[in-house]
Amino acid sequence: MNRVRADITQTPLPDESLQGRPFDLPDDVAHYLRDVRRLDVGAAVELFDGTGRVLRGKLQQVTDHGVAVFVEEDTTDTSRESPCEVTLLPVMPKRKRWRWVIEKATELGVRRIEPLTSDHAVVDIPDDRVASKLERWQKILGSAARQSERAVTPTISAPMSLEDRLEAYSPEGLAVAPAARSDGPSLDSVLSESDASGSDAPGAVDLWVGPEGGFSDGELQAMESRDITLCRLGPRILRAETAAVAAITTIQTRLGDLGV
Questions:
Q1: Domain, as residue range, for 114
Q2: Least CB-packed of 43, 109, 171, 215 within 10 Å?
Q3: Measured between alpha carbons, how far is 36 from 45 in angstroms, rounded to an integer?
Q4: Which of 226, 209, 118 minimizes the C-alpha distance to 163?
Q5: How is 37-98 classified by DSSP, letter by letter?
Q6: Of 254, 245, 260, 255, nearest in space to 107 by CA
Q7: What is the CATH number of the domain that holds 44?
Q8: What pLDDT, on a 0 to 100 scale, did the predictor assign at position 40?
Q9: CA 149 to CA 164: how far, in whole Å?
Q10: Rg, C-alpha atoms of the chain
């Protein structure tokens, strides 16, 4: 049965199961199903809350005043989550490029996104606009999760400086940073070495991606001092957003589930 998927990450769900019960949808989800997708009573839907919880059922009521779904199944579904938990720590590009990065990162299975500013790229977001920016970014992530049929939406944090993030940083798994014109090993060889024993792939990879002008010399030294492996992404110089997607794809192919 084809079900229309909808993101309810902005709506706290009760702890108890909703299976076998009607559930009134929040206004934004009701608008999406009724006015955008033009669904009517009886239509099959799947609602995900971003943590892996999924409600499957059929629309029971569709009116101008609200939409209700009868929940036939209240379950957990992480079947589309990669076994490799990738945290993306990108120095933020500007405007539409940033939206593109977090959208594609979600589609490729990233678990967390931690935006950074750096010596060569400072995106100034006033303190009083951070909350609204985070809300906007979370909606982009939810939309990308819906499109890619993920039930888990990546988390995203408020931007911070690369210097501040590195200050107390200690990687729990593999940490890599593609760096333009680096004389280090290729990213693929670093990943291959980490998986050379044939045992389970690393459970986590932190991916640090620099800005258009690259990391500064001081930043590169600080990263190496924190056990972050500097590596190459091939012979060409890539835009920051291209490097992010290329690196995530390489990680998910080698250690994740893109080869499945």
A1: 85-254
A2: 171
A3: 14
A4: 118
A5: S---TT-EEEEE-BBSEEEEEEEEEEETTEEEEEEEEEEE--TTS-SSEEEEEEBP--THHH
A6: 245
A7: 2.40.240.20
A8: 96
A9: 35
A10: 20
**Residues 188 and 247 sit within 8 Å (Cβ to Cβ):** no
- Tell the residue number behind the tokens 């009760």, with chain if given: 14
Same domain assignment for residues 95 and 169? yes
Mean pLDDT by 10 residues, the chain (260 residues): 86 92 94 95 95 96 95 94 96 90 98 92 80 93 94 95 92 91 88 66 87 90 95 91 96 90
In a shared domain, residues 121 and 143 = yes
Neighbours of 198 (CB within 10 A): 5
Domain count, the chain: 2
* Residue carrying structure tokens 């909808």: 6
Q: Which of 20, 44, 76 is the last residue of a domain?
A: 76
The 10 Å Cβ neighbour count of residue 171 is 15
121 and 46 in a common domain = no
